[in-house]
């Protein structure tokens, strides 16, 4: 795999211009049959293509800006809609100065799509983040999601996929500085690891999460390009890129099914706001601007959450059996009619006896349609019974008469009496505040002890004054869906899914009943007492049983020594999972420092100073109880301290991270303060060890563990 760079090779932090090393010799660009003898400097030719592509992209943007819609819209509404689409188009055509416009080139042996027997000459395609064409409409850059781009990620010596050459490009601050070739059909060239790919994977992380479009691996690409017809669950060990895979899958589906998803909508669900802020720039970098992001709490935010639950109460409230309790509570409002319904029209009186009303009510109840839909159908059913009597009396009523009867005061009164409206929040308020009502609805479903766990000791006076918890809000959302169907989206990505309760899974599943889902997570990183035990169980609660479960075990982020150290915890926290490996060539910095209790804070700050002397972002991760002391100590020494989710910069590279917010984040160097305090901060040992596993696997380049208390037994050995 020859590598090429200008001489002398520039020295940059990203190390994208390779230097000679065993097994990766630098070669003369003109020495290979695939080179262009008439062009002694292919790098300059590639730079020229980059410049021309950027010019073409600017022209595409200028064309969009110059569009005049004054004479093509019938009214101001159409004009507003069309202008909004044009503005989105203009925004998507922005040229991000420090983001490579293309990162690879494919040289095909034959033109794609033509019969190989025709002997059609091959074509070259530049692969990038978006499509770019010249003034004649000919492509200068092909979108990475297009079928013709797929071999960039999947071709190999064993299966070249009709490629003669695959070229990767190295960039420094948006400028093309190097390239590296693989001649896939040359038997004399051995298959080697790409050093440009390796350096891209290992380069320091500063700022928000970046896309992995240039480094997608074959097993990741299979998940990204999976069809929209089914849901996919990705079990991914730390550093395997599962979050990036999920985001790129959204981008791919929007490319392949844009009209369908534009109508139905897409949503990315993350564990917290810090996480969403961290990932929010990935999709815009790929040209996708319309994907919404939310947390589960956002989805069910029908009431203000001001309270918290003990772990035991939250576990019961999150149990799937609560759906049965709520369904029974909603249906308990239906009562069988005791009186007939008498409708007066003009001089005639039409009587529907109680037994017939009861038959109508029972039929609607047994059809198992939503409470609100049944309540809307009931007056029409009663009106129909009246119309039957009218026809039997020789009248000829039409639909307008039936609608008028359905609105009759007597019919309305009957409906109100037998099928009254239900307010979901008031229903949950009554369930949690009235022990007798809860006992009646939960009989045979929850044990008396479980009922006692969730009932409020001091009932709230009303919905607004109640101190609702996050779990209560999920119950209200379930009750709302029992009354009226929740709107379904076309595709939902659910990240860090292992932490959701069964009731939270149901809340997410309601948002994609007619669409598909991409579920991302790691059983070993489940840090709630109700964390899911198996993906099969989780997918059932989500409403997607039987979905494909893919496992990613090849890591790209966490250094080998670090992931091996953290994996010592797997037998205690997730014994059925495969231990992750790392393809990173660098071993990474790894140190464990034992100190006296009185020296703990000073030693942690010293480790931070050591990390700040290196390039990249630093995450200081500690138990919640330690955060105030560490923040004060950092302020006293003049070190700028960021909060999770805030973007790092050259001036501020250290983020103070509570262990509870570390999930999904990554830093070049991590200083981990007092592991025992992190474990002790959780309600049980398994959850504490899982939380520690999460924290240990946040670094990209190095980890320093500082402790005064004894390490957990699995980590105490050599």
UniProtKB/TrEMBL annotation:
Residues 1-11 have a biased composition (Pro residues). Transmembrane segments: none annotated. Keywords: ATP-binding, Helicase, Hydrolase, Nucleotide-binding. GO terms for molecular function: 3'-5' DNA helicase activity; ATP binding; DNA binding; hydrolase activity. Residues 31-49 have a biased composition (Basic and acidic residues). Residues 215-559 form the UvrD-like helicase ATP-binding domain. This is DNA helicase. It comes from Streptomyces angustmyceticus.
């Amino acid at each position: 795999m020859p590598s090429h760079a200008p001489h002398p090779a520039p020295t940059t932090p990203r190390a994208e211009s390779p230097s000679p090393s065993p097994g990766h010799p630098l070669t003369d660009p003109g020495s290979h049959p695939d080179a262009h003898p008439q062009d002694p400097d292919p790098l300059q030719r590639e730079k020229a293509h980059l410049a021309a592509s950027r010019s073409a992209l600017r022209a595409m943007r200028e064309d969009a800006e110059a569009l005049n819609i004054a004479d093509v819209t019938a009214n101001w509404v159409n004009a507003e809609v069309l202008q909004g689409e044009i503005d989105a188009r203009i925004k998507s055509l922005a040229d991000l100065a420090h983001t490579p416009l293309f990162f690879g080139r494919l040289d095909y042996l034959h033109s794609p799509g033509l019969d190989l027997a025709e002997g059609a000459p091959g074509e070259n395609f530049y692969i990038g983040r978006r499509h770019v064409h010249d003034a004649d409409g000919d492509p200068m850059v092909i979108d990475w999601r297009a079928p013709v781009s797929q071999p960039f990620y999947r071709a190999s010596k064993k299966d070249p996929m009709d490629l003669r050459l695959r070229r990767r490009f190295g960039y420094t601050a948006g400028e093309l500085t190097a390239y590296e070739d693989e001649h896939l059909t040359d038997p004399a060239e051995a298959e080697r690891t790409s050093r440009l790919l390796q350096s891209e994977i290992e380069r320091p992380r500063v700022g928000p999460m970046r896309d992995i479009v240039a480094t997608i691996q074959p097993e990741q690409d299979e998940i990204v390009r999976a069809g929209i017809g089914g849901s996919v669950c990705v079990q991914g060990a730390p550093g395997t890129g599962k979050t990036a895979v999920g985001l790129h899958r959204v981008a791919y589906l929007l490319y392949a099914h844009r009209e369908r998803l534009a109508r139905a909508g897409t949503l990315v669900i993350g564990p917290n706001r810090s996480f969403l802020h961290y990932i929010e720039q990935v999709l815009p970098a790929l040209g996708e601007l319309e994907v919404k992001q939310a947390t589960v709490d956002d989805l069910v935010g029908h009431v203000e959450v001001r309270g918290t639950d003990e772990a035991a109460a939250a576990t019961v409230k999150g149990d799937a059996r609560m759906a049965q309790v709520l369904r029974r509570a909603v249906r308990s409002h239906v009562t069988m009619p005791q009186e007939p319904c008498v409708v007066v029209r003009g001089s005639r009186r039409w009587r529907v006896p109680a037994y017939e009303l009861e038959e109508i009510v029972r039929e609607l109840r047994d059809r198992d349609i939503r409470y609100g839909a049944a309540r809307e159908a009931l007056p029409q059913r009663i009106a129909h019974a009246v119309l039957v009597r009218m026809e039997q009396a020789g009248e000829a009523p039409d639909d307008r008469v039936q609608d008028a009867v359905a609105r009759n005061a007597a019919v309305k009164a009957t409906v109100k009496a037998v099928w009254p409206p239900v307010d979901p929040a008031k229903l949950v308020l009554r369930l949690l505040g009235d022990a007798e009502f809860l006992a009646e609805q939960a009989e045979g479903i929850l044990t008396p002890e479980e009922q006692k766990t969730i009932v409020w000791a001091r009932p709230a006076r009303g919905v607004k004054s109640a101190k609702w918890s996050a779990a209560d809000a999920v119950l209200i959302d379930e009750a709302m869906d029992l009354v009226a169907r929740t709107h379904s989206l076309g595709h939902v990505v659910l990240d860090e899914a292992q932490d959701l309760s069964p009731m939270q899974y149901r809340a997410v599943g309601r948002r994609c009943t007619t669409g598909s889902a991409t579920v991302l997570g790691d059983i070993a990183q489940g840090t709630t007492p109700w964390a899911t035990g198996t993906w099969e169980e989780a997918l059932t609660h989500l409403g997607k049983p039987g979905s494909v479960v893919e496992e990613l075990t090849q890591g790209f982020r966490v250094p080998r020594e670090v992931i091996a150290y953290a994996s010592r915890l797997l037998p205690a926290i997730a014994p059925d999972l495969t231990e992750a490996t790392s393809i990173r060539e660098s071993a990474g910095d790894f140190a464990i420092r034992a100190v006296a209790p009185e020296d703990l804070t000073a030693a942690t700050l010293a480790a931070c100073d050591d990390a700040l002397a290196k390039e990249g972002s630093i995450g200081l991760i500690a138990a919640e109880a330690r955060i105030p002391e560490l923040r004060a100590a950092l302020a006293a020494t003049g070190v700028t301290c960021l909060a999770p989710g805030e973007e790092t910069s050259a001036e501020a590279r250290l983020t103070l991270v509570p262990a509870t917010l570390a999930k999904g984040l990554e830093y070049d160097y991590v200083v981990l303060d007092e592991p025992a305090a992190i474990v002790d901060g959780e309600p049980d040992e398994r959850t504490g060890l899982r939380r520690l596993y999460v924290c240990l696997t946040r670094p990209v380049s190095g980890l320093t563990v500082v402790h005064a208390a004894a390490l957990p037994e699995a980590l105490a050995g050599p």
